[in-house]
Specification:
This protein is of the alpha/beta class. Helix content is about 50%, strand content about 15%. The strands form 3 sheets. A 4-stranded parallel β-sheet has the order 2-1-9-10, sandwiched between helices. Strand 4 and strand 5 form a beta hairpin. The longest helix has 21 residues.
Length: about 290
């Protein structure tokens, strides 16, 4: 069974999507439609902008969404049996399985990005990657710190990203190294994504999701918040809202997809990060890009 997976923030690169725009009329139409929906020419930043300009949350999220979705929609034999996306990528996955229209997906991503940007500015916070420790050890260390610090991304065995206040992450990194972590590396991100500090953004996103029309998808989406397949619209919406303050259960999602018959994992979007993670989670999986 074919599982299409869609990357999240961090996969962006200058020039992303330019080849699609220049070579496919359908892609060009969708990119121009996106410029109109967003109210600024995001294509100019994607194709000609610097890495620094691309790094702004309000640009990064729609840019990765556009690259991922337009790539999938321009693939002739695009027939997913299951889909999943890492964090932001879940919105791309929901357009790919037709639960959301392209326009509504982009509008929601823009709303999410703006809400998260505001939450980051209101609460200075950060994230760190912890390498070489068991998940349980990382969880226990986080629980024992008297600051906001929580597991945020279960990326693959031995790689867990934590999220929290600046002080909480600083304390946690020290404790992780003491516990034998190979690395405890603060990440260059705007804030504590997938943590309780995103609560203001969660409320704002929920209002936008309630207003948006969802359709019954053509295949299940394996959602970050639960690592379970969902086809019921009310469940999909609930998990999409929960995702902002809950951890991304990527390891568990891939394991469940494999258990449900997923054999070929195809990444749609910039970079190859998810292919690497899938291979670390399940060595026998076939992985490739569109």
């Amino acid at each position: 069974m074919k599982a299409y997976v869609f990357p999240g923030q961090g996969a962006q690169f200058p020039g992303m999507g330019k080849e699609l725009y220049e070579n496919f009329e359908k892609a060009r139409i969708l990119f121009e439609s996106a410029n109109n929906i967003l109210g600024f020419r995001i294509t100019d930043i994607m194709f000609e902008g610097t890495a620094e300009e691309l790094k702004q949350t309000k640009v990064t999220q729609p840019a990765i969404f556009l690259h991922s979705v337009i790539l999938a929609l321009n693939t002739e034999d695009f027939k997913p049996d299951m889909v999943a996306g890492h964090s932001l990528g879940e919105f791309s996955a929901l357009v790919a399985n037709r639960a959301l229209s392209f326009e509504d997906g982009l509008t929601l991503v823009a709303a999410r990005a703006n809400a998260m940007q505001k939450a980051c500015e209101a609460n200075p916070s950060t994230m760190a990657a912890i390498l070489g420790l068991d998940d349980q050890v990382v969880e226990d260390i986080c629980t024992g710190i008297d600051e906001v610090v929580v597991p945020a991304n279960y990326n693959c065995p031995g790689q867990l990203v934590i999220s929290g206040s600046n002080k909480g992450i600083e304390i946690a990194c020290g404790k992780m190294k003491d516990a034998g972590a190979k690395r405890a590396l603060p990440l260059p991100v705007g804030g504590a994504f997938h943590s309780p500090l995103m609560e203001p953004a969660r409320k704002e996103l929920e209002e936008a999701i309630v207003r948006t029309k969802f359709e019954t998808p053509v295949c299940p989406v394996y959602q970050n918040a639960t690592a379970l397949p969902a086809s019921d619209i009310s469940v999909i919406k609930e998990n999409l809202v929960a995702q902002l303050t809950a951890p991304v259960k990527w390891t568990q999602s891939v394991q469940k997809m494999v258990a449900d018959g997923g054999t070929e994992f195809i990444e749609s979007g910039p970079g190859k990060v998810l292919q690497g993670l899938v291979k670390k989670i399940h060595r026998e999986a076939e992985v490739r890009s569109i």
